[in-house]
């Protein structure tokens, strides 16, 4: 039998245990708080350390930025950076903050429910007190309990057994409490891990903000660069028009040069004909000389005959005496003739002296030729130096390629490092995901076991409570019966009854205490259930956050994959650039070889010219030998004449002695000899005339040789200019080929982008199917939860005697129902988002298709423009050929006129030589006037030189202004280097003009090949369009399924209207963004137009300055011409004073001056043409470089657009993945 003090002792033991438990919990909580404080302080210290490191990194990055802000790749990165998905992290942070606010609201709601439950608990305690009061009121009725004493004693053992069971349960509850404490530790650890993740997210948000700022800066730089590019494009279009006009002019000059070349070829043919004629005349002279020799032999034979006749005439001496008188007369006449011959000999000697002076002049010309040869050798050495410079430049280009290769290697190393980092991140993410899933599964299992255990304990306590209530009712009835039955008994039974009553009261108190304990245990169990439910909700929220972090990791993984693909594409572009550089190197080496070949050809041509000059010298030597032979023949004739005179004296003596008898025979022989002498004199005169003609032809050939040498030099200069122009055309054609290759590369890039878009479309479809599967899983979970709700309702119906518990369960179920509805609404929202994404993908696909069509049209327009440009170039070449033909005809006319003038001057010079002796005195008087005129001419020349210097200064000023314009183009340094290399290569390379036709043929073949490639590309485009149509059909099917699912969801829920409103709001925001984008583009266009207007105004000012300088130059030329006219007038006056000789001499001087001025004008025109050619090449190079820059800007813009779209798709995919989980 258990007494009352034992019961109270046990109750006191339980209170002591509770105090021990509270102390222990206080210690644990204080320890936990201390640990949390230490953890927070360590995290703060770590954050400070990281901030310090971050400050160092920021300083280093600022230094690097100051060094690398002008790097083109960095500018491109700045332009691309704003298109990344990192800027959207703030939106995600706002979403997380909204979720945190929702969780706070849920917490406040739970706090309110807790307060309500506490009030309900107070009401229950009041009811309990009322029951106790009623029970104490029933204590007086001892008689009612006497009947049930036996029953209560029998039930005592049962209650003790139940008490043992309750103690065992209490122990189990303690064990459960320990397990919950361990679970709480685990949750605290998970909480610390989540705090770490939150801090990491905050750091990533800070980094994202920094990246956002840098991206905004890059966007501004890109906008500025686009404006600058538009300005350059407009400026280059104007320069292009100007250069087209210059191209036409240069083509006309080329035509004139070709006509001059043809004219020189004709002159060369004429000179060859004259050389052949001279050779023929030389052969005729040789024949005539042989005939003279024959005549000489005949004369000698006749002389022998005459000697025989003289022997016969010795017998006729008398007759000869008469004839001797006649002979004396004839001898006097022969002496006069001899004197005439001597005068002719003196004339011939004068001519010989003149020929010697001419030979000396030819030797001087030979020295000039040698000097020209030395100059050619100097130019050859200069060309060699330029070749060496080209080799150095090629080596520099090789060094640039090596540097590019090293950069590619570094990028590959960085790419490999990024790949390793991505793989490590993936491994860490997968490990963290596995740990989180494992923890979540363990926590869910533990919570489910605890819930089951608590439900069992709850059912058991409710059964015990019901049994106790029934026993209490039975005890009351038994006590009433006993009181009624045993009221008339004696005092001893009353005492016994009182004792039994006390025992029963003590037992009743024990029962009440046990009931109170059971109620306390029930309240503790309910409290524990609430805590577990709260912990379950917290774990569920943590699981959601973990899933969100996993989605973020997946998004970052995809972003890294996209960046990896971008780096691979950049690597491929770098490799393509290396290939282009190698091709350029090969082309430069080929051009170098061609230039060497041309230099060798020029050397061979120079050697041929030297050979011709030597042949002409040999011909001159032959003519000299002929002249010497003729002089020797003349000496022989004189010797024969003297011999004949001696013989005549001898015959005279014989005649005086013997020839008187034979006078008649001697007279006949004399007549014969006189006839023969007349024939010999006639032959001598003919030979003299031929000699004079030979001298004239020799002089004419010498003058023609000089003219021919001058014309050869002009032809060489014109040929060099023509070759340079032809090389320019070759360069233009090669550049057009490069442009065609670039267009083909751009077409390939657009095809690749289209393929990428198709793959992204398939990826979006896969994501859409995954979302549908997730929606199905959410529905299944909804059904399971509905089943669980039904089971809970059944359980509530089975044990639903407590109205308060039923209401509480109903509220909880309503909350769960609302949560499920919210989850279902979120699933619907996710489905709507997926539908929007599919529609957006379709719109982007249509935009991509339109963009591809637009680019194809642009490329076709560019091909049409190139064809038109080539046609215009051909027309300009034809016009230049016609102009060259006209110039050639004019040059022929001028040449004929000059030849006639030269002939007239030669005749006048012959006449003036006769009157030269009479006019020497008058010449001395006029020399003073000539000196004055020369001083005046020198002053005029000095003024002309000053005007030329002013013109040169003006040109230098214009060039300086042009240089200032070119200095604004900071990105053209490498292109200028390439331009110089190309100009040097073009200056050195000498190809023939006839290769243009072959190159045009090759261009036509290349055009046909490109047309074939275009056809294949059109076929590929049609295939891609068919694939796009198929994908659209699939997308339409998917949309039909999505619409069916959406109808089902709308049938189940009524929240689709809100989603529609949100979608409309998003469309309105998209439209507003488009309007803003258009406004920004309009502002950019306005700013570019303003800048273009400013630059055009600057160009107009420079053009006006250039026109002013041109007018000044024209005025200077006019003044120079006036001075020249004045000089001519003065020279004409001097010529009128000097009569014939001085007039002719002045005419010769004027003609020489004209020739010099013509030469100088021709040289100046050639220099101006060379300058114009250089300017044309420079402007053409700048135009091509500007077009390349425009193409690069378009490529970068398209790449940035593609990258932005890809990032938007990647940005959408994590949102799609996170919404169903939420």
From TrEMBL:
- Coiled-coil positions: 86-379
Query: Which residue ranges have biased composition labelled Basic and acidic residues?
Result: 459-488, 965-994
* Pfam families in alphabetical order: Myosin_tail_1
* Keyword field contains Nucleotide-binding: yes
Entry keyword Coiled coil: yes
Recorded hits in InterPro entries, A to Z, give: Myosin_tail, P-loop_NTPase, XRCC4-like_C
Which GO annotations describe the biological process of this protein? muscle contraction; myosin filament organization; sarcomere organization
Gene3D superfamilies in UniProt: 1.20.5.340, 1.20.5.370, 1.20.5.4820
Q: Which GO terms describe its cellular component?
A: cytoplasm; myosin filament; myosin II complex
Boundaries of every Myosin tail domain copy? 87-487, 496-1201
**Which intervals of the chain are annotated as region Disordered?**
459-507, 965-998, 1182-1222
GO terms, molecular function:
actin filament binding; ATP binding; microfilament motor activity
Give UniProt keywords alphabetically.
Actin-binding, ATP-binding, Coiled coil, Motor protein, Muscle protein, Myosin, Nucleotide-binding, Thick filament
Q: Which family does it belong to?
A: Belongs to the TRAFAC class myosin-kinesin ATPase superfamily. Myosin family.
Entry protein name: Myosin heavy chain, muscle
Q: Which organism is it from?
A: Chionoecetes opilio (Atlantic snow crab)
Its lineage opens with: Eukaryota, Metazoa, Ecdysozoa, Arthropoda, Crustacea
Q: Which gene encodes it?
A: Mhc_7
């Amino acid at each position: 039998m258990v007494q009352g003090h034992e019961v109270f002792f046990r109750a006191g033991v339980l209170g002591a245990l509770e105090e021990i438990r509270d102390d222990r919990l206080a210690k644990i909580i204080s320890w936990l708080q201390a640990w949390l404080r230490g953890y927070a302080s360590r995290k703060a210290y770590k954050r400070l350390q990281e901030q310090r490191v971050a400050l160092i990194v920021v300083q280093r990055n600022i230094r690097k930025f100051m060094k690398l802000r002008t790097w083109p790749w960095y500018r491109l990165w700045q332009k691309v950076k704003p298109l990344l998905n990192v800027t959207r992290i703030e939106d995600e942070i706002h979403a997380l903050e909204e979720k945190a606010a929702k969780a706070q609201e849920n917490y406040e709601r739970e706090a309110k429910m807790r307060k309500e439950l506490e009030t309900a608990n107070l009401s229950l305690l009041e009811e309990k007190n009322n029951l106790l009061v009623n029970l104490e009121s029933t204590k007086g009725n001892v008689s009612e309990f006497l009947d049930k004493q036996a029953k209560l004693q029998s039930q005592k053992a049962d209650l003790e057994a139940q008490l043992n069971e309750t103690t065992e349960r209490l122990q189990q509850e303690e064990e459960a409490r320990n397990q919950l404490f361990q679970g709480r530790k685990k949750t605290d650890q998970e909480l610390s891990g989540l705090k770490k993740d939150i801090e990491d997210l905050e750091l990533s948000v800070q980094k994202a903000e920094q990246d956002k700022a840098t991206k905004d800066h890059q966007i501004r730089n890109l906008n500025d660069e686009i404006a600058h590019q538009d300005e350059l494009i407009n400026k280059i279009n104007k320069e292009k028009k100007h250069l087209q006009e210059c191209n036409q002019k240069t083509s006309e000059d080329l035509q004139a040069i070709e006509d001059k070349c043809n004219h020189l070829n004709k002159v060369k043919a004429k000179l060859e004909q004259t050389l052949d004629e001279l050779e023929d005349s030389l052969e005729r002279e040789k024949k005539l000389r042989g005939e003279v020799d024959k005549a000489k032999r005949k004369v000698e034979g006749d002389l022998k005959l005459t000697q025989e006749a003289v022997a016969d005439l010795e017998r006729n001496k008398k007759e000869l005496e008469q004839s001797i008188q006649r002979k004396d007369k004839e001898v006097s006449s022969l002496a006069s003739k001899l004197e005439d011959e001597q005068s002719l000999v003196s004339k011939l000697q004068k001519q010989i002296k003149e020929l010697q002076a001419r030979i000396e002049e030819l030797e001087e010309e030979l020295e000039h030729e040698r000097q020209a040869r030395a100059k050619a050798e100097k130019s050859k050495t200069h060309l060699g130096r330029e070749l060496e410079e080209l080799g150095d430049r090629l080596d520099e280009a090789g060094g640039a390629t090596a540097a590019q290769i090293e950069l590619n290697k570094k990028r590959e190393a960085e790419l490999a490092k990024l790949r390793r980092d991505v793989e490590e991140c993936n491994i860490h993410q997968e490990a963290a995901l596995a740990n989180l899933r494992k923890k979540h599964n363990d926590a869910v299992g533990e919570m489910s076991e605890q819930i089951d255990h608590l439900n069992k304990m709850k059912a058991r306590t409710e059964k015990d409570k019901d049994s106790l209530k029934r026993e209490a009712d039975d005890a009351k009835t038994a006590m009433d019966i006993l009181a009624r039955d045993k009221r008339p008994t004696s005092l001893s039974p009353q005492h016994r009854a009182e004792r039994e009553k006390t025992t029963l009261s003590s037992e009743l108190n024990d029962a009440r205490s046990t009931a109170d304990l059971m109620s306390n245990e029930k309240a503790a169990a309910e409290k524990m259930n609430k805590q577990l439910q709260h912990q379950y909700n917290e774990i569920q929220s943590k699981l959601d956050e973990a899933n969100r972090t996993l989605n973020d990791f997946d998004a970052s993984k995809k972003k890294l994959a996209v960046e990896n693909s971008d780096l691979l594409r950049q690597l491929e572009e770098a490799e393509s650039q290396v290939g282009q550089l190698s091709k350029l190197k090969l082309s430069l080496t080929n051009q170098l070889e061609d230039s060497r070949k041309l230099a060798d050809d020029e050397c061979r041509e120079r050697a041929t010219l030297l050979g011709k000059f030597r042949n002409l010298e040999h011909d001159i030597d032959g003519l000299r030998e002929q002249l010497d032979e003729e002089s020797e023949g003349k000496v022989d004739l004189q010797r024969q004449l003297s011999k004949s005179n001696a013989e005549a004296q001898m015959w005279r003596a014989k005649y005086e002695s013997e020839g008187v008898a034979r006078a008649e025979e001697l007279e006949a022989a004399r007549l014969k000899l006189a006839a023969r002498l007349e024939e010999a004199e006639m032959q001598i005169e003919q030979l003299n005339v031929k000699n004079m003609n030979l001298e004239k032809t020799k002089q004419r050939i010498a003058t023609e040789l000089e003219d021919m040498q001058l014309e050869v030099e002009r032809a060489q200069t014109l040929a060099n200019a023509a070759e340079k122009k032809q090389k320019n055309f070759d360069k233009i054609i090669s550049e057009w080929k490069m442009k065609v290759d670039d267009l083909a590369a751009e077409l390939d890039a657009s095809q690749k982008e289209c393929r990428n878009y198709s793959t992204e479309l398939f990826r979006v479809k896969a994501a859409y199917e995954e979302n549908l599967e997730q929606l199905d899983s959410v529905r299944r979970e909804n059904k399971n939860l509905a089943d669980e709700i039904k089971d809970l309702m059944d359980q509530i119906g089975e044990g639903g005697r407590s109205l308060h518990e039923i209401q509480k369960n109903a509220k909880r179920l309503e909350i769960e129902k609302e949560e499920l509805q919210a989850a279902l609404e979120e699933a619907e929202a996710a489905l709507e988002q997926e539908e929007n994404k599919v529609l957006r993908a379709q719109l982007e696909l249509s935009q991509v298709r339109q963009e591809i069509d637009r680019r194809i049209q642009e490329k076709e327009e560019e091909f049409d423009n190139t064809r038109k440009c080539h046609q215009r170039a051909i027309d300009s070449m034809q016009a230049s050929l016609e102009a060259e033909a006209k110039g050639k005809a004019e040059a022929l006319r001028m040449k004929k006129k000059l030849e006639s003038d030269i002939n007239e001057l030669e005749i006048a010079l012959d006449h003036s030589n006769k009157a030269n002796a009479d006019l020497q005195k008058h010449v001395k008087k006029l020399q003073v006037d000539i000196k004055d005129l020369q001083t005046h001419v020198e002053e005029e020349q000095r003024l002309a030189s000053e005007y030329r210097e002013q013109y040169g200064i003006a040109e230098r000023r214009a060039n300086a202004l042009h240089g200032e314009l070119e200095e604004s183009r900071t990105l053209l340094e490498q292109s200028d280097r390439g331009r110089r290399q190309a100009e040097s290569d073009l200056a050195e390379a000498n190809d023939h003009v006839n290769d243009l036709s072959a190159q045009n043929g090759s261009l036509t073949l290349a055009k046909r090949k490109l047309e074939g490639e275009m056809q294949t590309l059109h076929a590929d485009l049609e295939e891609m369009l068919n694939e796009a149509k198929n994908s659209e059909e699939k997308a339409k099917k998917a949309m039909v399924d999505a619409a069916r699912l959406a109808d089902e969801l709308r049938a189940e829920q009524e929240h689709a209207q809100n989603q529609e409103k949100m979608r409309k709001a998003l469309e309105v925001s998209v439209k507003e963004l488009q309007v803003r984008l258009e406004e920004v583009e309009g502002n950019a266009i306005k700013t570019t137009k303003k800048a273009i207007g400013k630059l055009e105004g600057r160009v107009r000012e420079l053009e006006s300055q250039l026109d002013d300088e041109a007018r000044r130059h024209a005025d200077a030329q006019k003044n120079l011409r006036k001075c020249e006219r004045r000089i001519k007038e003065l020279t004409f006056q001097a010529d009128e004073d000097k009569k014939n000789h001085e007039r002719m001499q002045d005419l010769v001087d004027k003609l020489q001056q004209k020739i010099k001025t013509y030469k100088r004008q021709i040289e100046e025109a050639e220099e101006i043409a060379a300058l114009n050619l250089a300017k044309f090449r420079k402007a053409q190079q700048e135009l091509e470089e500007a077009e390349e820059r425009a193409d690069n800007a378009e490529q970068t813009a398209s790449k940035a657009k593609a990258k932005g779209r890809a990032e938007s798709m990647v940005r959408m995919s994590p949102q799609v993945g996170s919404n169903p989980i939420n």
